[in-house]
């Protein structure tokens, strides 16, 4: 490893244009190389629920982890750290140096469209799991990149909105997880698109203080892709690397600004030094090698870890005793998500899973099942799921490039000079007579031909600057075409390749609906079977990067379906497949309710383990779930005239609920297992709260003991209660065990220009969730020591 003296010497070997060139990407997913100092290009990849690698190609698959909201539901730092190690190994297999994860933004409201990529609504839980993630990834020689610094909780107008937030809330709530990640040694941090208190984050003074000066961050600040939009203002801030490249507002313009005295060259030198320091850490600098574990995992270890993560993150909200399922029961498996579950959310974190593991397949291997979809919940066209031919055409339809792909959704293919048209074609095998819905997506002129006959010809203008929409989810246009079962027709979709329109295109085909009533068939199947398992889901249109949610209701009549199934089968288990909260008006009718989040590729097998009792549902809620939409306490989540005030201050999530007289459906921290627990005693010793709990059930189990603090008579405004620490314990039937919950000094501190501890008594509350703190103690903070 090079020390800083050697890195400074290497910086001194470069002239100004060479130094500035290093501060923008060499391509979309790589930094620039510089042979003069022995620097190779570093490769970046999106996370956080897997390592996609550069670009999108369904032929390059990746291990798909549970979503971060699921990882947070484990309340298990050791498990998250082990999963970080798995991500590092995956990154090294893909020659990735920098993983753009974890996301440390908070669940400010349940309406956030990117909820699934963030851990939780609480800064302490987010900080502890974020630190575990960073440590696991970086122990494998790969840089972790906590993002999006900072206050990036809303997707609407995310490129331009300005968050107005008080200094105390900023420090105690939104900056706290980033501070913890920096203290844990994160090698990079990503600046966000949004502005905070008048400064775009790529130009924010916070990149210097507190990030670099106060916290001592010695790593690299990389921009979100396209977030650097100015030359001087961003260069004089703590922004270090502008991605992607080589285009952008730095380059020659930054050289000119330095020569004109508008940007000190010392700032450029510091940015290059940080880039070289990162390169040395990941082994991208000549003479350095990333320190990586030499362990060889046994065959199947990755899949077993992912399956363990599913059961550990599954939250059992309700159970009347139907779970775990008894062997030999006939089971109706209902809902399209039982065969095609959402294993991940939409947007830049998307990848192509290396395996598929449906709940129906997993249950069929264990018991007699019948599947009935019941309904269709997503009205967006379905990409062709068959081999397609992709051609890039130039003038006069000259073929510049061609390749065979596995799906009709093409986000990237080879870019070639002179490209004018992208064409996707396939031989469509017609499986049902009737009006098929055919669709094409993209920007520019879009055409669709069926057996040489043009059935669609439209122009889709560019209507957004959001890269998630432009490059991942462009608008579609569809048409109905009558087709006959048993025939094969040639379907050809074309789109223009205009300037700044991206490459993303789609050819989709949906058959006409079946002649029978799928809803009635599902209810009848539930009526005939011993148990009904109903999988309900959100869609890519509801939970995705680049958009927020405007209702928490499930789409497509799923609530009606669940109610109908519960009415005919008292043993109905509902599985909720979503990244964040949804309304569950039927929750009192269901025999059991399980949250499986976006569970990753081992979701089916992991959930079956829970249903049959091979593993306990280990999850606890990382965010509060409302009973009614009107009850949600933080409702102002959309910017108005580009301004987004965080008027609730410190009170988000359970803190906001605790300040009202309305109870949620399920509190932060809630989760049942297959046993029960009695909280017997709590006591304070120095900086530790010791809580004795007893397993009062008939099975061994794990309990997450949570400690909250309260200060009703405080001289400063505080939440009604706030999480101060937690610890998990395990015990057999009838056994008691002591949870040792460490309380950091920061838990009793507040920000007043510096961290201050108010003298006097804090109330210590201990229990299984934020709404059930059944043990209560009061202690003078003077009796606590750190």
From TrEMBL:
Name under which the protein is recorded: Beta-glucosidase
Stretches assigned to the Fibronectin type III-like domain: 703-770
Keyword Hydrolase (UniProt): yes
Entry superkingdom: Bacteria
Any GO BP annotation: carbohydrate metabolic process
Cross-referenced SMART domains: Fn3_like (SM01217)
PANTHER family: BETA-GLUCOSIDASE (PTHR42715)
Cross-referenced InterPro entries: Cellulose_deg_GH3, Fn3-like, GH, Glyco_hydro_3_C, Glyco_hydro_3_C_sf, Glyco_hydro_3_N, Glyco_hydro_3_N_sf, Ig-like_fold
């Amino acid at each position: 490893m090079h020390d800083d003296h050697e890195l400074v010497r290497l910086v001194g070997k470069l002239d100004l244009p060479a130094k500035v060139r290093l501060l923008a990407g060499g391509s979309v997913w790589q930094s620039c190389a510089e042979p003069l100092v022995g620097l190779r290009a570093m490769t970046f990849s999106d996370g956080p629920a897997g390592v996609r690698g550069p670009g999108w190609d369904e032929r390059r698959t990746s291990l798909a982890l549970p979503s971060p909201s699921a990882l947070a539901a484990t309340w298990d730092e050791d498990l998250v750290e082990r999963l970080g190690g798995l991500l590092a190994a995956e990154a090294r297999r893909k020659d990735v140096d920098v993983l753009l994860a974890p996301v440390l933004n908070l669940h400010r409201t349940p309406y956030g469209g990117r909820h699934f990529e963030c851990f939780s609504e609480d800064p302490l839980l987010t900080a502890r799991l974020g630190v575990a993630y960073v440590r696991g990834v970086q122990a494998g020689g790969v840089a972790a990149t906590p993002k999006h610094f900072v206050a990036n909780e809303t997707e609407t107008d995310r490129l331009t909105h300005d968050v107005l937030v008080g200094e105390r809330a900023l420090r105690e709530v939104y900056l706290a997880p980033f501070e913890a990640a920096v203290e844990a040694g994160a090698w990079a941090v990503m600046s966000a698109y949004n502005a905070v208190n008048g400064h775009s984050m790529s130009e924010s003074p916070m990149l210097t203080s507190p990030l670099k000066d106060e916290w001592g961050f010695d790593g690299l600040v990389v921009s979100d892709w396209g977030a650097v939009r100015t030359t001087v203002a961003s260069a004089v801030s703590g922004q270090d690397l502008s991605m992607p490249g080589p285009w952008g507002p730095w380059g020659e313009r930054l050289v000119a600004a330095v020569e004109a005295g508008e940007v000190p060259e010392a700032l450029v030198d510091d940015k290059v030094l940080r880039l070289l320091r990162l390169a040395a850490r990941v082994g991208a600098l000549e003479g350095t090698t990333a320190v990586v574990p030499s362990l060889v995992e046994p065959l199947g270890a990755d899949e077993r870890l992912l399956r363990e993560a599913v059961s550990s993150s599954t939250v059992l909200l309700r159970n009347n005793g139907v779970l775990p399922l008894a062997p030999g029961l006939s089971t109706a498996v209902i809902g399209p998500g039982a065969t095609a579950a959402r294993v991940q959310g939409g947007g830049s974190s998307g990848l192509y899973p290396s395996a598929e593991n449906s709940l129906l397949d997993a249950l069929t291997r264990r018991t007699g099942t019948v599947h009935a979809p019941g309904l269709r919940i997503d009205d967006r066209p379905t990409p062709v799921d068959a081999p397609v031919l992709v051609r890039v055409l130039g003038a006069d339809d000259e073929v510049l490039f061609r390749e065979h792909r596995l799906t009709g959704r093409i986000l990237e293919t080879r870019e070639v000079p002179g490209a004018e048209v992208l064409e996707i074609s396939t031989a469509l095998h017609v499986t049902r007579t009737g009006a098929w819905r055919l669709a094409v997506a993209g920007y520019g002129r879009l055409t669709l031909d069926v057996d040489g006959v043009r059935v669609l010809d439209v122009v889709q203008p560019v209507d957004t600057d959001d890269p998630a929409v432009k490059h991942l989810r462009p608008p579609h246009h569809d048409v109905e075409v009558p087709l006959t079962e048993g025939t094969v027709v040639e379907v050809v979709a074309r789109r223009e390749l205009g300037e700044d329109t991206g490459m993303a295109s789609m050819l989709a085909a949906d058959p006409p609906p079946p002649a029978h009533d799928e809803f009635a068939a599902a209810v009848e199947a539930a009526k005939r079977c011993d148990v009904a398992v109903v999988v309900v889901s959100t869609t890519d249109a509801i939970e995705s990067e680049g958009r927020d949610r405007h209702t928490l209701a499930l789409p497509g009549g799923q609530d009606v379906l669940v109610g109908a199934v519960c009415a005919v089968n008292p043993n109905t288990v509902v599985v909720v497949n979503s990244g964040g909260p949804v309304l569950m008006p039927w929750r009192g009718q269901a025999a059991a309710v399980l949250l499986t989040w976006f569970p990753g590729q081992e979701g089916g097998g992991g959930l079956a383990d829970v249903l049959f009792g091979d593993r306990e549902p280990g999850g606890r809620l990382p965010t509060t779930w409302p009973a009614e939409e009107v009850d949600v306490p933080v409702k102002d989540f959309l910017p108005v005239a580009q301004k987004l005030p965080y008027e609730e201050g410190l009170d988000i999530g359970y803190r906001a609920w605790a300040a009202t007289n309305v109870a949620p459906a399920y509190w932060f921290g809630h989760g049942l297992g297959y046993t029960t627990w009695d909280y017997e005693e709590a006591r304070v010793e120095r900086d530790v709260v010791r809580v004795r709990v007893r397993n009062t059930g008939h099975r061994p189990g794990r309990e997450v003991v949570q400690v909250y603090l309260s200060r009703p008579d405080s001289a400063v405004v505080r939440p009604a209660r706030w999480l101060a620490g937690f610890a998990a314990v395990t015990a057999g039937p009838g056994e008691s065990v002591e949870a040792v919950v460490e309380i950091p000094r920061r838990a009793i501190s507040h920000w007043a220009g510096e961290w201050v501890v108010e003298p006097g008594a804090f109330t210590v509350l201990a229990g299984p969730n934020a709404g059930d703190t059944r043990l209560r103690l009061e202690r003078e903070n003077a009796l606590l020591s750190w």
